[in-house]
Design a protein that fits this description.
The protein is an all-alpha fold. The chain is built from 40 helices and two strands. This is Neurochondrin.
């Protein structure tokens, strides 16, 4: 038996591939090729390796390429089984005069034939060959050897068939196939293009697992592709535009790759292109913007011009797609343009180290305004049947990003769209609420505009909150939001998001957006407390909100790293307590006492006495926990002090409770221990406001303050109102 005869058996795999779509009936195959039936019988009856070899060769000769259908392949498998191919793949002894890879080639050819059957491709006996098959991709040998090339083709056929099964990608990744494919591609040997195609499929099916198992090898491929992209002068650069997004890692992209990708994109987008050439480049740029922000764009004149070009092209594309309602929208391209517009918004609003110069910012704001107008026009046409489509969500996202920074332009159009936005956000919120699956909701919080999928519940409110925060300050938009039921929806949303941070949930895995959403909700409620106090008093949802704030703050103020959220909750609760002071829940109940004790803790721990170098007297300074975030905290702190002051005369039990906490005594002690020159006038005013109201509300408070040298301290700080109050009986 010659090596050529053995290699000829490899035609089984090829015939199986070519006939994968041909399924003639078994009786037709028998009547058409009775010789094949005799040889299959011989194969079944073979008693040793030699007889199996001979029978396989006879079957091969009896079958012309394209004649093997699924049933015939299955009958060959029933006759051969896995034992014989297993031995061929692992044997180290070849017949005299044959290269050692010939037997392995026959074993792979048999597997390739079997893998044409999806059921066999998922068989454990195929799956456990994945590590062996993967080694064949990188094995050294004569590149012109026909048998070796045939074995490589059959190996890719096997691995591709496994990848097409339900759990195949997971098995391939675990079996080391990703690294083998990377090395095969980088080696540019025979079949390297098949390696890249299979890599693309695995990354599309299981991106996270691929990067976890083979990050160094995948980064090496990315470096190679990026370098090729930067150097390409022919049509291959457009093909690379489509491939490269799949190879961007979930972590940091290597700097050398970013340089090559940016240079390649600059050359492409700076040329006159057709849409089929430009669109993949825009999508690649969008992926880079989503992954790296603006870090991939170089500083200086070239970088600013490139960024301005990106945003201008994106805005033009959005307008062309959305203003012409008769044409079909290329949603993937427009969504990519949204990401580039969002990058433009971020850079236009950045005050320090922006890539853009001021004239460029002015020009980009103008073109983005026109594109946002097109987005609004599109959303006005959206009917109920389309509201769950990801592209609508992506359109709401870019509008939300714009409104977070700019609400003065397009005000009329925005106001006209507000009823739709409220209904849209409410419909998605209610869909999530009906599932009662908080873990799924958290997963959905991270959905990006480029995530594929047909329908899913998205967190639209998270995207709209910053814009609504600005709009609730203005009379017209605020009235529309109230009329459409936005406050009630926001209360429900706040309570739902708060549930995610409650005991029993692992807050360490929550995205930052949950806490940011809670803080932004608080800001909106603060606006409503100030501008629409009647709404707070009459809408029952705010009573529920107040109850949640009261029960939550005591634990929140004790948690490390959540001081800013605690400040929002405390200040909002204090302001609402002034409006809801007649509510039974605020009449000295355990919940109300716990809330005010926690609020006092937040207000009282902001400042400490600190030794001053070269001076005998200490100075008033921020406490360490407050110091790093005081810029974001101070407005809430002063508002909280003012709100607490307003609550004292409305709640008779509050002054005795404050006295039991020793806050007034410790506050006077703190002021007496520091230099009056170190206490800013606004601090003096805030402290005096609280002390005066406590002194006026309760005789025991006045006596405690006098015992703490309150009159003398008031005199030192020129607190005339406090000094007068303490001088009275």
């Amino acid at each position: 038996m010659s090596c050529c005869d053995l290699a000829a058996a490899g035609q089984l795999g090829k015939a199986g591939t070519m006939a994968s779509d041909c399924e003639p009936a078994l009786n037709q195959a028998e009547s058409r090729n009775p010789t094949l039936e005799r040889y299959l019988g011989a194969l079944r009856e073979a008693k040793n390796d030699s007889e199996q070899f001979a029978a396989l060769l006879l079957v091969t000769k009896a079958v012309k390429a394209g004649d093997i259908d699924a049933k015939t392949r299955r009958r060959i498998f029933d006759a051969v089984g896995f034992t014989f191919p297993n031995r061929l793949l692992t044997t180290k002894e070849a017949p005299d005069g044959c290269p050692d890879h010939v037997l392995r080639a026959l074993g792979v050819a048999l597997l390739a034939c079997f893998c044409s059957d999806p059921e066999l491709a998922a068989h454990p006996q195929v799956l456990n060959k994945i590590p062996i098959l993967s080694t064949f991709l990188t094995a050294r040998g004569d590149p012109d050897d026909a048998a070796r090339r045939s074995m490589i083709d059959d190996t890719y056929q096997c691995l591709t068939a496994v990848a097409g099964t339900a759990r195949g990608p997971r098995h391939l990744i675990a079996g080391g196939t990703v690294s083998a494919l990377c090395q095969a591609y980088l080696g540019h040997g025979y079949g390297f293009d098949q390696a890249l195609a299979l890599l693309v499929g695995l990354l599309a099916a299981a991106e996270t697992q691929c990067w976890k198992e083979a990050e160094p090898d995948l980064l090496a491929v990315l470096r190679g592709l990026s370098e090729d992209f930067q150097k390409a002068e022919d049509a291959s650069k457009f093909e690379l535009c489509q491939l490269l997004p799949l190879f961007l890692p979930p972590t940091t992209v290597p700097p050398e790759c970013l340089r090559d990708l940016q240079a390649g994109l600059a050359r492409i987008l700076g040329s006159k292109l057709s849409s089929w050439q430009r669109n993949p480049a825009l999508k690649l740029a969008a992926r880079l913007a989503h992954a790296c922000g603006s870090d991939w764009i170089p500083a200086g004149s070239s970088g600013s011009k490139f960024l301005a070009l990106l945003v201008n092209l994106a805005c033009v594309e959005v307008r062309l797609a959305l203003e012409e309602t008769s044409s079909e929208v290329k949603e993937d391209v427009v969504t990519a343009c949204y990401a580039l517009m969002e990058l433009g918004i971020q850079e236009c609003t950045r005050c320090e180290q922006s890539l853009l110069k001021e004239p460029q910012k002015v020009q980009l704001v103008s073109v983005m305004k026109e594109a946002i107008g097109a987005v609004i026009h599109y959303l006005q046409q959206v009917g109920p049947e389309k509201q769950k489509e990801p592209f609508v969500f992506a359109s709401v996202r870019i509008l939300g990003a714009w409104l977070a920074e700019e609400t003065s332009s397009l005000r009329k159009e925005v106001c006209q769209l507000l009823p739709f936005l409220v209904r849209y956000a409410k419909s998605l919120y209610e869909e999530v609420e009906e599932t009662n699956d908080l873990s799924q909701q958290v997963a959905n919080l991270a959905i990006s505009p480029t995530t594929p999928g047909s329908t899913w519940p998205g967190d639209a409110l998270r995207l709209l909150l910053p814009g609504w925060c600005h709009l609730t300050v203005e009379d017209g938009p605020r009235e529309i939001l109230i009329k459409e039921g936005a406050p009630s929806l926001l209360c429900k949303y706040f309570l739902q998001q708060w549930e995610l941070t409650s005991p029993g949930h692992d807050t360490s895995v929550l995205p930052d957006s949950v806490e940011i959403s809670l803080q932004t909700c608080c800001h909106i409620f603060l606006n409503l407390v100030v501008t629409a106090p009647g709404l707070i008093k009459r809408d029952a949802c705010f009573t529920s909100l107040m109850n949640t704030l009261m029960t939550s703050l005591p634990a929140l103020v004790q948690q490390q790293g959540r001081l800013l959220l605690a400040a929002n909750v405390a200040t909002l609760g204090l302001l609402m307590a002034r409006l809801l002071s007649t509510s039974p829940t605020l009449q000295g109940t355990p919940a109300s006492r716990g809330f005010f004790a926690a609020a006092i803790l937040f207000l009282s721990q902001s400042h400490v006495a600190r030794a001053s170098p070269g001076s005998d007297q200490a100075v008033l300074a921020l406490s360490p926990d407050y110091e790093g975030i005081w810029a974001d905290l101070q407005e809430l702190w002063f508002l909280g002090m003012q709100a607490f002051t307003g609550c004292v005369p409305l709640l008779p039990w509050l002054a005795p409770a404050a006295l039991r906490s020793r806050w007034p005594q410790e506050l006077l002690q703190l002021l007496a221990s520091v230099s009056p020159n170190s206490v800013k006038p606004e601090m003096v005013a805030a402290y005096q406001g609280v002390l005066v109201e406590l002194a006026r509300a309760n005789r025991l408070c006045r006596e405690a303050m006098r015992l703490q040298a309150g009159e003398e301290t008031a005199s030192h700080y020129r607190m005339a109102a406090l000094e007068q109050c303490l001088s009275e009986p």
